[in-house]
Amino acid sequence: MSYKSALSLIRVLVGLLFVAHGTQLLFGWFGGDGLAGTIKLTETLGLRPAPFWGLLAALGQFGGGLLLLLGLLHPLGALAVMGAMLVAILKVHLTHGFWIASGGLEYALLLFLLAGILGLAGPGSYALDNRLSLRLPRPLSFWAGLAAMILVIGIGIASSSTA
After folding, report:
1. How far is CA 114 from the centre of its chain?
2. Sign of the dihedral defined by the CA atoms of residues 81, 95, 25, 159, in that order
3. Would you say 65 and 81 are in contact if contact means Cβ atoms under 8 Å apart?
4. Which family does it belong to (predicted)?
5. Under a CB-based contact definition with an 8 Å cutoff, are residues 157 and 53 in contact?
6. For the whole model, what pTM was predicted?
7. In this predicted model, what pLDDT tens digit does every residue of 129-157 receive, in sequence order?
8. Dihedral sign computed on CA atoms, order 97, 84, 26, 91
């Protein structure tokens, strides 16, 4: 298996994982609480307005996962997943330490880093971007998107309450 084929396989698997989790957040599938539950959780995390941040989290995971899965508009899917995981790390897992067994950031950090690697490395051989001859400027689109994502999340975290 070539490097580019392996990259495509990892991208597809991570994309599927996030699409599945995103359906929990949006539609309540696979035992999830749906968008209403996602908004309620977002409100308990102190992010205001909760409907905006809840929808953004759900779409970041579902939509970002779908873009990763398809290899479409790379690196936007990776950035959406990174954004969702960064908020999860900062607002949910950070206070619980490192290890996932105690609710820590271990798993969310792994997914954040994996999405970052995919964002930098490219979509791999078997991507819709290649079939459709779509190319966002690399690595500029990744670094500019990362800066914008950190700015938006920073504003959201800084303006959140401690409810």
Report:
1. 10
2. negative
3. yes
4. Belongs to the DoxX family.
5. no
6. 0.94
7. 999 999 999 899 999 999 999 999 999 99
8. positive
